[in-house]
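Before relying on records like the one below, remember that each one covers exactly one chain. Contacts with other chains, cofactors or solvent are not represented anywhere in the record.
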Amino acid sequence: MSTQKLTAFEQVVLAGLADKAGLAAALFEAWADLPADSVQSARSLVNAAQLGVTEEGATRDLLERSLKLGLLDATPVGFKPRSGMHTRFQRLAFSLHAVEHYRSSVHRDATVAQVVLTKPPRPSVLEQKLSALGWRTTDLEPTEHAFHGLVRAAQRRVVVMTPFFDSTGAAWLQELLSCVSPGVERTLILRSLENNSRKDYPFGFDALSPWLRAQGIRVFNYSIPRKEGGRETFHAKAVLCDRSAAYLGSSNVTAASLEHSMEMGVVLQGRAVASIADVIDAVLESAAAWG
């Protein structure tokens, strides 16, 4: 790879793709190994880079941006490198990897927050109104994509805290926890496990419990009776990865939340996550280990 300084054009490209530098680096690295005249779609490029299908939407957005930046040309079936640009892909990939490393491991703002959204099924009145207000709804990261990105990056532990989940949520939760790297501790915090006749019993647990045990995933029940009546429990929905990233939001692990309702939350990175981790650690100290 050439060691010459980045050209002014390459610097513009880096600035235009920097917010998704890691994904862009993987895509250009894969494309650099393909023929210079190859035509790629979001799907084929995700496959070439050996990424998950959840990356397809973000890949499509990066392709559109690269078109506007002058890296690519559009064809009836996808995108191809503009003349002379394919030879730059490896250099750009290297530089984008460096940008991602700096952002994730060197520079860290006090707290970084990104809004994530689960939109109602189309046609959606909400999406129409957001578009009318000038929002590019494709810029709002889907909740599912955010969850998968979070857990894949975890190096020590992943904790999922959800008060409800049903059979649809059980399948979704199994897929999510399967994305965690080998050796990373996985923990699930639930409530109402002590009484399966309660309306808020997480009914998806019955189907998922054998798999959780087989995988060595720790389960805790945060549902503490009070002497004066009632109980101490939770309604928070959170996904914590190490002490560096977390999701907080409205999304339950149920069909209603995952497929039908508008759900909104934030992915946090930085100083605020340490406070979230402290709270969740206190919950784990308070809750009962289950099974």
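The longest strand covers residues 111-118.
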